[in-house]
């Protein structure tokens, strides 16, 4: 038994096993009130029913209760799932989409529900994802930025959402990084600083954010450190001065 001690259908009516069409299943122990029942309003019990009776899933993909359709879509034959891509409930559309070939689910890239678009983006690659780079929802674009080939990320360098641009800064080809050194968000510029080769770090040595300058001071060529020893942030100063001191010691040791 589940913790919920009631057996109501999706309309709130009490379930009566005597009037159920699955009498044979009940007698065979393949369904059980308050535990495994396709008529119950609780998803766990519906799911358990289909786990016990996989062969019945096809006949429930058009059930009036969306929970039944959604769970049936997880178990039914893929040959009956395509119509569910137009289901009014997003959970049903997604459960069908996750099992269907990519060529059939591409239309869900413009699904009205953001959760469906987010999940669809997690299934697609490269050219299939390109149309989703302009999605109105930032998290959809974030998923795209994480999945698409780095060489295709150019369109997202100017994305309006800093979190998307941070992912872009982590993944774009390194020779594109100088184009992001003036990003308005310090966290994005810090990602850029972490990936820039030392000879290009001078582009960020006067960055307004101390974390970026600290990263610069930790890796920039020693002969470019002098400006940073008098930085207005003590952490940046300490990093620059400690590196210079180490360089001077090594220079004195060299015959």
SSE inventory with pairings:
Elements: H1 23-27, H2 43-52, H3 66-75, H4 90-97, H5 102-105, H6 114-121, H7 138-147, H8 162-171, H9 186-195, H10 210-219, H11 234-253
Helix pairs in contact: 2-3, 3-4, 4-6, 6-7, 7-8, 8-9, 9-10, 10-11
Quaternary structure classification: single chain
Helix content: 40-55%
- Count of individual beta strands: 0
Give the overall shape, derived from the CA principal axes.
elongated
Mean pLDDT across every amino acid position: 93
Could you give the distance between the termini? Answer: 83 Å
> Helix/strand-derived class?
mainly alpha
Biggest sheet overview: none
Order of helices and strands: HHHHHHHHHHH
Share of β-strand residues? under 5%
Rg value: 29 Å
Unreliable stretches: none
Count of individual helical segments: 11
